[in-house]
Amino acid sequence: MRRALASEKNRAWIRPKNGDHTLYSEGLVFNNKQKFQNKLPLRTSAVLIPIVKRNDNYSILLTKRSFKLKDHSGQICFPGGGCEVEDLNSMTTALREAREEINLPSTHVEVVGAMEDYETATGFIVSPVVGFVNPNFSAILAKGEVTEIFEVSLDFILDERNHLIESMVWKGVTRHFYSFSHNKHKIWGATAAILVCFAKMINEYE
């Protein structure tokens, strides 16, 4: 929780060890034969990894972003967004964004920890805050931001056979990225990478 409780200013100037620049380094091919490195300070953001428990079954709640948004439009993601000046830390940001995006009150979230920050190729530093969510809340989707919320079984996430790796050319560079194919949804990019890190952490613990 140390980084998740750190101020936005401090986080922006400290490069995390996890990110697109390290996770796929073995498979990357760069035109300039160098790994990408975003200039500091990074753009700070935070997400909530909402774990929902119903009886003995666990799932992860995810959202689908509106196609009207400028950044990451139409993608599957966790509730979350950019840090604001009034946010004390990443935990504050994650809980605020969850309330604004899907009407999830902080009183319905039991924060149990946080994962290492993750740096994206687009220059964001993402702080994943983990919490158990009371499913008995009235979900209201923020108009123009979120078009759908759904849940993915934790067992599906933990199964390494579902951790697919794909590639694409981005800005003249061959990029590799994790993805999950779940029913009608494709989860990829930073969200999928964070889910893979989350799965590895739990599987190693068990």
Please tell me about this protein's structure.
By secondary structure, the chain is of the alpha+beta class. It has a single domain, classed as Nucleoside Triphosphate Pyrophosphohydrolase. The protein is 21% helix and 36% strand. It contains 5 helices and 12 strands. It has helices at 8-12, 20-23, 90-102, 154-158, 189-205; strands spanning 18-19, 43-54, 57-65, 76-77, 80-82, 109-114, 118-119, 124-133, 146-153, 164-170, 173-182, 185-188. The strands form 2 sheets. Strands 1, 2, 3, 4, 5, 6, 7, 8 and 9 form a 9-stranded mixed β-sheet that branches. Strand 2 and strand 3 form a beta hairpin. The protein is globular.
In short:
This protein is an alpha+beta fold and 206 residues long. It is 21% helix and 36% strand. The strands form two sheets. Strands 1, 2, 3, 4, 5, 6, 7, 8 and 9 form a nine-stranded mixed beta sheet that branches. Strands 10-11-12 form a three-stranded antiparallel beta sheet.
Quickly list its features:
Nucleoside Triphosphate Pyrophosphohydrolase, three-stranded antiparallel beta sheet, alpha+beta, 36% strand, 5 helices, 21% helix, 206 residues, globular, nine-stranded mixed beta sheet
